[in-house]
Design goal:
Elements lengths: L1 H18 L11 E2 L2 E2 L3 E4 L3 E3 L2 E3 L4 E8 L4 E5 L5 E5 L3 E3 L3
Antiparallel strand pairs: 1-2, 3-6, 3-9, 4-5, 6-7, 7-8
Length: 94
């Protein structure tokens, strides 16, 4: 009886993994929530990283998306990559 229940749970768990493929936290992706790599963003507040600071109002291009927590990896005009929280930028409508 218990073996049957365990088999059913394992089967349901495997079925759920197939239906809801999760993003792996250590990998980046090029799409998340309808946002795709190459999308243009503008910073709505200054952002500080060890490598430097980026000011408010800077236009950036989405390179990739990091997960858990979700952060955008954005490239500036000089090719530098900035990893920012999603609330730091808004999409640039063109």
């Amino acid at each position: 009886m218990i073996e049957t229940i365990v088999r059913k749970i394992i089967t349901l768990s495997l079925d759920l993994r197939i239906v809801m493929a999760t993003k792996e936290y250590y990998k980046t992706s090029e799409e998340h929530g309808g946002v795709n790599a190459g999308a243009k963003f503008i910073t709505v507040k200054a952002h500080h990283e060890v490598q430097g600071d980026i000011a408010e109002g800077v236009e950036l291009t989405l390179d990739s998306i990091a997960h858990f927590p979700t952060r955008y990896r954005l490239k500036d005009d000089s090719g530098r990559i900035w990893t920012v929280p999603i609330h730091t930028v808004i999409p640039l409508d063109k």
